[in-house]
Structures are given as structure tokens and as C-alpha cells.
Write a structure and sequence with these properties.
The complex is a heterodimer of chains A (about 425) and B (about 200).
Chain A: H1 2-15, H2 17-25, H3 31-37, H4 43-56, H5 73-98, H6 108-120, H7 123-129, H8 131-140, H9 146-150, H10 153-168, H11 172-190, H12 195-207, H13 211-215, H14 218-224, H15 226-235, H16 243-252, H17 255-267, H18 271-283, H19 303-311, H20 315-322, H21 326-334, E1 341-347, E2 350-355, E3 358-363, E4 374-377, H22 381-394, E5 402-408
Parallel strand pairs in A: 1-5, 3-4
Antiparallel strand pairs in A: 1-2, 2-3
Chain B: E1 8-10, E2 23-27, E3 33-37, H1 38-41, H2 45-54, H3 58-63, E4 67-68, H4 74-86, H5 107-112, H6 117-129, H7 133-146, H8 152-159, H9 164-178, H10 180-195
Parallel strand pairs in B: 1-3, 2-4
Antiparallel strand pairs in B: 2-3
Helix pairs in contact in B: 4-6, 6-7, 9-10
Classes of the chains: A alpha/beta (about 425), B alpha/beta (about 200).
Pfam families (chain A): F-box
Organism (chain A): Caenorhabditis brenneri (Nematode worm)
Protein name (chain A): F-box domain-containing protein
Chain lengths: ~425, ~200
């Protein structure tokens, strides 16, 4: 019952945050409330209304009236006349909807229906209801405010109600009723200043403990959120799991204490570092789980070690290693090729590549050559030969002293 | 097993003189203790810097507990210190950037490394960790020599490496395991692309 009835209050609170402040500042006029929303959009109207607010309640917490030092009398008079027209037009429409807030404890169903009706009003109805306000807004919307953009049409409807309540609330009780619906948003802003709001906060917290947190401004939520705080700790390089240490080291510990420690440390340069080194040696555990299996793979080796192994192979062997696996190929291609001269010989039925006097023969059939030579027998031997040649020439670290290309199409090996 | 009960392995009894030379005590992760001469330790850059920083005197070496090397087992550490004792006092080679690296495996090293592949793997890893340059040279050369005269398929078996196809399949499986929806989204995108749409919206 209470939850359903609270919905409109929440929505009002969400929408009328700044309106409430304005109302507190200037209960007579509804302008400030409207201004609160479009405070930044319409500077002229804001100045006029804030001037009124300042003149009536100098101690108001709203920041809007601060701009009232510059007054435009003509504009102000125009605005006042418009506001009066709003006061006359709005009450009938908004009062029925808005009174639901204070009557929640008596009959929530009616309040719900009223509030929901208020919220569900079609845009046309809203236009009709807000026609006087719309006029004000038309003047005010010469510049578009981010706040006004963020707020939905519902907010406009409800803010009109709030304005009416502010105007209507001559007695403190009525103003309390009005505030009841608006509290959640206004409370965080005005807590330190107005006792009224404290009461309202108590009412709100009793009935809807979770809602106010959701209605809090995002700017206020972030720094309070412990997750964000942990995230900041992590970003700052501190351990999020030990915020106390951060406090002890960075905040609680005076600088003089730190200074007093440093000479002690300097007195024992051998003892303390020794223990640290020993602990570091113990912590540097580089053993792999695969080592327990008894058959470690080459891929378990550090990359630097694999590079050392490749560097200690001759270039023919490196060409074979390139074909073993993708990772090895990538590693071989990164290293400097272990050859300074290449001789490319193209025959009718074979291709010979000589890397630093190491022969690699590519052909369809296997040739019997010296045992140290490599014979590649493939149908697409040309592709294999050119792949090897390209991979060698593509390496940016290749430094050739000699490159020779021989085309002997007529010669045939037997 | 307590430290007192741990077996003490003498690396090279003949090499231990009675003179003023200092012998550091090291302990493997399986609580085997080794006594290694200061000169032999110089072959290992890591251990050499460690003992320099500790600044142990000969009394400290005896009174204080052995320096624990937590990530190397006794069998491997014994091979390492045997090699260090044998090559103590030798100059540490410097990488001149030349390729290919020409490395000769001495007879002693060849015998020392006449071990199974698992232990050779651990020896290479320990040499890398303790930064023993020459031991790393010869052990890597030994592994490189293992590839001589073998085809890529044979090398895959020797080094336990996956082929390109297996590698691709494993990578695809890992990606799918990480984000099972990714493949569906990709297929959906391809389907829409085939139909002529440029985007999902």
C-alpha cells in the first residue's frame, strides 16, 4: 500500500529536486520553482525570480538566487504577471494529483490512481494543463538546458504541481505535504540548512528506505560507493583489500615518523635487505605445472630460451623449425636470419637454394645428394622453394653480403 | 623433513681446499643442502649478486641457515652446481650479436647433459633462472642439436608442439569457451552482410 503510493512521490522527488529548493527560497511565487529546472536555460527569467527569492528569504540555500545581483526590472514585471496567471490556472489540475502525497496514509488507492492518472496523461492533456506554463517555457526555451533535456515530460507535469503547492503553501503543514512528495531529491541538497527537510527526510526514510538512494544525484553517489572507492584504490596502485593500510601509511602516519624510520633503515643496510632478498628468492616461483608431468614441452620454455635454441641452429634447421608450428614460425621470423649469402638456382625439374653453402634442394623426386643437404620432394616444390626464399628475404633483420640468381633451365639433374 | 636431517650433497670433494675460501650453503626446494665455493657462484649472475648483497662472512655462512632456492629441486641443483664447480674461474661469455652462434659442447658438459629430456628441461630452466650464461649456451645447443636431421613432424613429437591445425583448433576452442556468444554474433553478422545489410540497426 505504502509502496504503491510512494511511486508518485518518488517520481516527483526525482523530477522536482531543484524545484523544491526554489520553493523553499521563494514560497510566494511559482517562478523560482520553474526556474530551478530551467535555471541555466533562461538567464533573464532566472535572474528575475532569483531576485525575488533573495529579497524574501535571504538565507535560502539555493544557488540560483545568487545571480540576482543583476536585475532587469522590466523582465521581472513581465514574469511576475505570467506567474500570476499560472497560479490561477494550475491549482485545480495539480492539487488533485499532488494531494495524493500527503494522503497516502489514509487512502493509498485513490492516491495511486490520481498520481498514475497524472503521470499517464496524454501529451495533449499536458499541453492543456500546462498551457500557461508552456507559455513561460516557450520564452524560456530560447536556450536548451541539459537538465531540461534530461527530464521527461512527466517531470514538467509534476513540477507544475509542485509549483502550485509552493504557491499554495501558506501554512507550514501544507508545505510539508508538498515537500513530502518532493523530499527524496531535495533532501540531499538541503539537509544541512532546513529543519523542515530533516523532518521530511525522516518520514521518507521510514516509508521508503531504498528509494532515496536511487534518487540521489549521480555525482553524490559515486564518491560514496565503496566499489568505486575500491576501484580508485586499485587505480592508485594500492591494494583494495587493505584500505586500512592505505590509511595508516598515507594518512595516519605523520611525516616525521617516516623520517625517523629512514635512519634506522640506513643503519642496517645488510640485515634488512638480506631478508628481503631471501623472501624474494622464495617468492619467485617459476616452476610450471607441466614440469610435474615429466614430459615438458618446448612451448613451456621461456621465449628467450627458445630464441636461444633457434639462434644456435643453422639456417637450414631454422627453415625446418619454421614449419613445425605457428608459434615457432613467428619466433624464427623475428630473429635475425643466420645467413649472409643466398644463391637461388632454378633448374627445369628442381630448385636449389644455397644458404651460406648449405644446400636445400626442392624437386618432385628425391635426389641423392650429400648427406648434409636437405631434399624437399613435393609436387609443388616451386611453391615450397619460393616460400622459403620469401620468408628469408622478408625478414627486416636480414643482412646479405651476397645474393645470386641463376636460371639454368636446360640443365637437368640425374 | 627438517633441515638438520636433510642429506648434505658434496658437489666436488676434491675441489674443496682447506684454505680461506668461503663456501656458501644453498638449499633446494626438497631440502637438499649444497656447499658451493665463492668462485663457482660467480658463474651464476643471480647467485653472485645475491651473496654480494647479503654480505655474509664465513661465520655467517656457518651460523645462518642455508640460502633457500625454492623453485629448483635437488637433482637439478646438483647438476647446476657440478657444472659451476667444473667451470669456476672461467670467463663469462658475452653476446656479440653474431649469428649463427657457434657453440662447442665440451666433453664434461656433454656427459653432464646426457640426461632425459625432462631433466634437461629443468636444467635449462634453472640455468635461465640463475643466469648462468655458458650453461645456458651449451644446454640450448644440445636442444638445437636434437633437431638435426628431423622432419617437422618428427620435431613436433620431440618438442611436443602442436601443428598449425591443432593450434588453430585450440585457439578457436579457447575463444568459444571465453565468449560462447561471440561465434553466434559473428555468424549473425555474416548472415546480415550476405543479405545486404550494413549493420544490425
Amino acid at each position: 500500500m505504502s509502496e504503491s503510493a510512494e511511486k508518485p512521490c518518488d517520481s516527483l522527488a526525482l523530477l522536482g529536486d531543484y524545484d523544491y529548493d526554489e520553493k523553499e527560497a521563494s514560497p510566494e511565487a511559482s517562478e523560482p520553482a520553474h526556474m530551478g529546472i530551467n535555471e541555466k536555460t533562461d538567464i533573464e527569467v532566472a535572474r528575475a525570480s532569483s531576485a525575488e527569492a533573495d529579497s524574501e528569504q535571504p538565507g535560502s540555500p539555493v544557488s540560483g538566487p545568487d545571480h540576482s545581483s543583476i536585475l532587469l526590472d522590466e523582465k521581472k514585471s513581465d514574469d511576475e504577471s505570467k506567474v500570476k496567471s499560472i497560479r490561477e490556472d494550475e491549482p485545480m489540475e495539480t492539487s488533485s494529483a499532488y494531494r495524493g502525497g500527503p494522503c497516502l496514509s489514509e487512502d493509498s488507492s485513490d492516491d495511486d490512481s490520481d498520481d498514475e492518472d497524472d503521470i499517464r496523461k496524454s501529451p495533449v492533456d499536458r499541453k492543456q494543463n500546462q498551457s500557461p506554463k508552456q507559455e513561460l517555457e516557450d520564452e524560456a526555451t530560447s536556450a536548451v538546458d541539459i537538465n531540461s533535456k534530461l527530464e521527461s515530460p512527466k517531470t514538467m507535469d509534476e513540477t507544475v504541481g509542485m509549483n502550485y503547492e509552493k504557491v499554495k503553501s501558506d501554512s507550514p503543514e501544507e508545505s510539508l505535504d508538498c515537500d513530502y512528495g518532493e523530499k527524496p531529491k531535495s533532501s540531499p541538497l538541503e539537509q544541512p540548512t532546513s529543519p523542515k527537510i530533516d523532518k521530511l527526510m525522516e518520514c521518507n526514510s521510514a516509508e521508503k528506505p531504498e528509494k532515496p538512494s536511487s534518487s540521489e544525484p549521480v555525482v553524490q553517489e559515486k564518491p560514496i560507493d565503496p566499489e568505486n572507492f575500491d576501484g580508485l584504490l586499485v587505480m592508485s596502485g594500492e591494494d583494495s583489500s587493505s584500505p586500512k593500510q592505505l590509511d595508516d601509511n598515507s594518512v595516519d602516519m605523520p611525516k616525521s615518523h617516516e623520517r625517523s624510520k629512514s635512519p634506522e633503515q640506513s643503519k642496517k643496510p645488510l640485515e634488512q635487505p638480506n631478508e628481503n632478498l631471501l623472501t624474494v628468492m622464495g617468492q619467485l616461483n617459476l616452476t610450471t605445472d607441466d614440469s610435474e608431468k615429466g614430459s615438458p614441452s618446448l612451448s613451456d620454455m621461456p621465449v628467450d630460451v627458445i630464441a636461444l635454441i633457434i639462434e644456435r641452429s643453422d639456417y637450414k634447421q631454422q627453415l625446418i623449425l619454421r614449419k613445425v608450428s605457428k608459434s615457432l614460425r613467428a619466433l624464427v621470423d623475428k630473429l635475425k636470419p643466420a645467413c649472409e649469402s643466398i644463391c637461388f638456382m632454378y633448374f627445369k625439374n628442381s630448385i636449389n637454394l644455397v644458404f651460406d653453402e648449405q644446400w636445400v634442394m626442392y624437386s618432385k623426386d628425391v635426389f641423392e645428394g650429400p648427406s648434409e643437404d636437405i631434399a624437399v620432394a613435393r609436387d609443388d616444390f616451386e611453391k615450397a622453394a619460393f616460400d622459403d626464399l620469401v620468408s628469408t628475404l622478408k625478414n627486416p633483420r636480414l643482412q646479405l653480403e651476397y645474393f645470386h640468381n641463376v636460371l639454368l633451365c636446360e640443365v637437368v639433374f640425374y | 623433513m627438517s633441515v638438520e636431517n636433510a642429506p648434505v650433497v658434496d658437489v666436488d670433494e676434491a675441489a674443496i681446499p682447506v684454505e680461506k675460501k668461503m663456501y656458501y650453503r644453498f638449499e633446494s626446494n626438497d631440502k637438499k643442502e649444497f656447499r658451493v665455493s665463492e668462485l663457482a657462484i660467480q658463474q651464476s649472475e643471480t647467485l653472485n649478486r645475491l651473496v654480494e648483497a647479503m654480505g655474509y662472512t664465513s661465520e655467517d655462512v656457518e651460523n645462518k641457515p642455508a640460502i633457500a632456492i625454492e623453485n629448483i629441486d635437488g637433482k637439478t641443483l646438483k647438476l647446476v652446481f657440478q657444472w659451476c664447480e667444473h667451470h669456476k674461474g672461467e670467463a663469462i661469455p658475452v653476446d656479440d650479436g653474431s649469428v649463427p652462434k657457434i657453440v662447442e659442447i665440451p666433453e664434461f658438459d656433454a656427459k653432464l647433459m646426457d640426461i632425459d629430456n625432462g631433466l634437461l628441461f629443468k636444467l635449462i630452466w634453472a640455468a635461465d633462472y640463475l643466469n648462468i650464461v655458458q650453461l645456458l649456451n651449451v644446454s640450448c645447443k644440445k636442444v638445437a642439436n636434437m633437431a638435426q636431421g628431423k622432419t617437422p613432424a618428427q620435431l613436433r613429437r620431440v618438442y611436443l608442439l602442436p601443428s598449425d591445425e591443432e593450434d588453430e583448433a585450440a585457439k578457436r576452442a579457447a575463444q568459444e569457451a571465453q565468449d560462447p556468444r561471440a561465434r553466434e554474433v559473428e555468424e549473425e553478422f555474416e548472415e546480415r552482410k550476405r543479405q545486404g545489410g550494413n549493420s544490425f540497426f
